[in-house]
Amino acid sequence: MYDPVMAGWIDRVNVDPLPWLLEESTPAVRHQALRGLLDRAADDPDVVASRAAAMAADPIAAILAARSPEGWWAKPGHGYSPKYTSTVWQLIFLDQLGADGNDPRIRVACDYLLDHAQSSSGGFSYSGPSSGRPAPSSAVHCLNGNLLRALIGFGLLDDPRVQASVSFQAASITGEGQIAFYRSGTAGPGFRCAMSYGDPCAWGATKAVLALARVPVERRTPAVARALGQGAVFLLSRDPSVADYPTGPETRPSGSWFKLGFPSGYVADVLQTLEALCEAGMAADPRLDRAVEWLVAQQDSAGRWPNHYSYAGKMVVDIDRPGRPSKWVTLRACRVLKAVAESKSGT
């Protein structure tokens, strides 16, 4: 049967990507394509089988094999360093790979993270002592957004510690409530960050919006809804395809915005801003149109998007070859095209 919504996004791709993305040789991609492109239910037999296969195959299996029995990677502690082999990054990457949060190894790692990387403010910090909790002054939007999104994805939204991170993320955007700002980290409301010379950080905004958008609509408090709204307003205050957000003394946007990649660390690209805005309910907004057209133009003649930011040689296990066509980047692009097509068709 002809599906106009399916045709609406596949027609933007030079060659139908589904046969490639659904190959059983890459079960983690297959799992997410079944869920995100074909809308299969979590208990669909093909989804269950592909997720189980993904957990037993690299890159997920290699990442989990490198974990200590206590739940940390690389070395004990707050887990931000060394990049990109330590605890913080493995949980972020495992979530992006679609790993099963019910796996006991992931649950132990999440508990370790919450005990060692979360400050008393509820925000996750990029530095801290070798033992004990880090200081609230080192919490930043990008890290908190990445980890909060991962923890929600792993099914931990009801954990009081995760709820504290949700509250921190919302308050640090809006400035509402009992929130403190620091010159060394989150420098003020509206995504202001010390790492961005005190200006609002669009990378951090993208990560924060992705995190809060993962809270189910019916579970969003008024504070979370306001923070999401402010995040969308900020990200749409510039053309996402140009990405000329404030950057302190820098005069031009970082070139990293235009290097589509996978997985994603603290850097964001144009595609991830589109992902965040789509998940925040803005997929039909015409201010996304130029960025969507830019995205479509990045595919090759075979309808595949290359990975220009792959972290190859820096991770526990390589996922993609730099510059080569990437199932992961293609999957990301297709999910955005699908979200835009569905939203503009009213489905």
The averaged pLDDT comes out at: 95
The major β-sheet equals: 2 strands, antiparallel
Please name the CATH architecture of the largest domain.
Alpha/alpha barrel
DSSP strand tally: 2
Helix-residue proportion: 40-55%
- Envelope shape: globular
The secondary structure category is: mainly alpha
Strand percentage lies at: under 5%
State the low-pLDDT regions, or none: none
Secondary structure layout plus pairing:
Layout (H helix, E strand, L loop, with lengths): L3 H7 L7 H4 L5 H10 L8 H12 L3 H6 L21 H10 L7 H13 L24 H13 L6 H15 L11 E3 L3 E2 L8 H12 L8 H14 L34 H10 L9 H9 L29 H19 L2
Antiparallel strand pairs: 1-2
Helix pairs in contact: 1-14, 3-4, 3-14, 6-8, 8-9, 8-10, 9-11, 10-11, 10-12, 12-14
Characterization of the model:
The protein has 347 residues and is mainly α. The chain folds into two domains: 1-57, no CATH class; 59-294 and 305-327 and 338-345, Glycosyltransferase. It contains 14 helices and two strands. Strands 1-2 form a two-stranded antiparallel sheet. Strand 1 (186-188) and strand 2 (192-193) form a beta hairpin. The mean pLDDT is 95.
Summarize the structure.
44% of the residues lie in helices and 1% in strands.
Question: What brief labels describe this structure?
Answer:
347 residues, single chain, mainly alpha, Glycosyltransferase, 1% strand
